[in-house]
Amino acid sequence: MRLILIGCEYSGTTTLSRQIIKWVQENLGDEFGFHDHWKLPHVSHPNIPEGNTIEGMWQDWESGKGPDPTMTGHTDEENTQFLALSPKIRESFQRYHMEYHMGDGFYGDAHHNNVGFYFDEAVYAPLYYGYGGPGEYADRTWYARHIEADIMHKAPDTVLVHVKASADVIRKRMKENPHKFSLLQDKDIETVLTGFAHHYEVSFLRHKFEIDTSTSSIGESICEFVGKLIPNLQSEDRQKIMFHRK
């Protein structure tokens, strides 16, 4: 299975990805995970404290006892240092970062899943990162389609999931649970929502659907996800679900 979850920060992509991991483990019996390290400055894997595990970190976050693991890859000092890098250096880092995750070592696996990925770059880079705008070097809109052409060659079964929420709900979540080092600004919410919607619509990926989390519980969202995912799965994954349930 290959999934790409996209959406404005606070729409619920990380929360939904966590539930998807549990569903896959329960219904396919496979180890499963997401690369959720694309929004600057959170571009590293979780930093697991001594005596804990990644699963323990996720459980702590879900119970309100710990931070979002996807935001623990760097210390605060390292995050500040990363954001102080020039746009040129950040652009090249992210470009190599994306190309690395397009490698055969990833697409040779049964599962390769991302949250944000090149969609985050296409939306956030011109707005906040200082690079990737129309006509600029490594224009991120052009680059998104460049990557998708490669995905269509390596993994045409990839499923794109656009996780949505209304602007009012995004603002409410921002106020109730602000993310440290978040770059999303209140004045830009509509622009960002429109940006993700646009890139979803023009994506080359053939298998795709949307989930609106504005009024749905986590349980309702994962049920909607499963219902929309099944028709888009390749036969091998459908068979795994069938046999695992017997």
Automatic annotation (TrEMBL):
InterPro entries in UniProt: P-loop_NTPase (IPR027417)
Name of this protein: NadR/Ttd14 AAA domain-containing protein
